[in-house]
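#help-structures

NK: newbie question. if I give both the sequence and a SMILES, will the prediction place the ligand too? trying with NAP
OV: yes, paste both and it writes out the complex. here, I ran yours:
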Amino acid sequence: MTFDIPRYKLNDGQSVPVIGFGTYPLRGVDGVDAMVHALEAGYRLLDTAVNYGNEEEVGEAVRRSGLAREDVQVTSKIPGRHHEYDQAIGSVEESLRRMRFDYLDRVMIHWPNPSVGKYVEAWRALVELRNRGLVRSIGVSNFTEQHLHAVIEDTGVTPAVNQIELHPYFPQQEMLRVHTDLGIQTEAWSPLGKRSAPFAEPPVSEPTKRYGVTPAQVILRWHLQRRSLPLPKSATPQRQRQNLDLFGFELTDAEVDAITALARPGGRLFGGDPDNHEEM
Ligand SMILES: NC(=O)c1ccc[n+]([C@@H]2O[C@H](COP(=O)([O-])OP(=O)(O)OC[C@H]3O[C@@H](n4cnc5c(N)ncnc54)[C@H](OP(=O)(O)O)[C@@H]3O)[C@@H](O)[C@H]2O)c1
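OV: that's the protein plus ligand as structure tokens.
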């Protein structure tokens, strides 16, 4: 028994479920099973990337779920090594071929790869792919305010989303403000904090008892109330269902602020150096 997940409206007129399913590092037969379970649990947004090496599995999971293609949103990402215009076009065409889809709901630039400095070229390619109808909506990931302004000034096209690291130890107050000012939807990667999830912190554990929910549910609800779009990954069907069960309770503003105040210097999971990022 599933339900319709509420949606955010994007700046290009498309809409997107307020929570999606992270697919890294799900691969192989077990990966497909985990993604099919997620779709059965009610997720309608799967987040992948060329660098996750699981685009075939994502396509297979959508087909195996029995859901119509248009009822599931699939997003992928161009890697930092494919930023030259023709390479970026070819990269997305290859993603489509691997998934056996004729369009993608959203494609992002995985990270700006600033030492190469060709992310504006990649953005022009995404604009072209959207014009051709191969991609419904286009966005970026791991962009700073400066990178966002560079692509907007070059093309006049504002990314629909920016997918950034965001969790209670790294709450990204400033980028949320930048995104609101520019009309960009925030997506949150590692929304639970992955290896260093703050489940035992009182601002998380106290509402857990108050509302009879789990620490993960409290953190994911915090994302929704700050209008960010979390992409939790879980290989476990029970956790997948739990992570989607966020609409029967509401945190107070004070509870939201207390979780945001868990911010700590060095709260980033990947040490701020995208070159060391295992996925990019
Ligand atoms: N754009 C980027 O650069 C970028 C970077 C990193 C990640 N991402 C995206 O973001 C997604 C999520 O990020 P992530 O996997 O790093 O972090 P995450 O979703 O914050 O954490 C995943 C971890 O939390 C565990 N977990 C999930 N639900 C739980 C629950 N209810 N209770 C306890 N533990 C729970 C999972 O274990 P089990 O699987 O065992 O349940 C897994 O170990 C990725 O899959 C990917 O799609 C994007």
